[in-house]
Amino acid sequence: MVEEAQSEAHVPAQQPPPRQEARLSSSHGHSSRAERSAFPTSQGPRSPVGLIWRIRDRRSFVELRRRGRRAHAGCVTVTFTAAPVGTPAEPPRVAFALSKKVGSAVVRNRVRRQVQAHLRSVSDVMAPGTYLFTLKPGVAELDRATLLSEVDSCLSRCVPRAA
């Protein structure tokens, strides 16, 4: 039987002097790539000016069904419930309902984003409360101007605009 000798490796205690870092030529660099910010993105809720909030709780959907006022124009239906009296001022809260009959997920998301962008631009004149936008099949074939005019028509009939 051969016995292994236990030995220690010689490791110098001194560190080698620092070397110059490798340099990449400009053809290997990413000069066109955007620089990242040194600061992390902000956390928490954003400022409510000119924004809309999402509906997240079941109670809001139950109230929309029970007490909501509806307005219909073309392929768009809006259901609205006013914010309770005495609650702190909040931006309008919005939810969307689009069935798969409207189109693929890409189509549904495109339509929803168009309506959301429009709502953000008019959120300062929307009454505080909860809104449910139901977009029916055929909405994907509408041009943007027609879609947004139907949304505005529903908003004006469903709830008086705040001044």
TrEMBL record:
Keyword tRNA processing: yes
GO cellular component: ribonuclease P complex
Region Disordered, annotated ranges: 1-45
Example of a GO MF term: ribonuclease P activity
TM annotation in the entry: none
Keywords of this entry: Endonuclease, Hydrolase, Nuclease, RNA-binding, tRNA processing
Entries under HAMAP family matching the protein: RNase_P (MF_00227)
Annotated protein name in UniProt: Unannotated protein
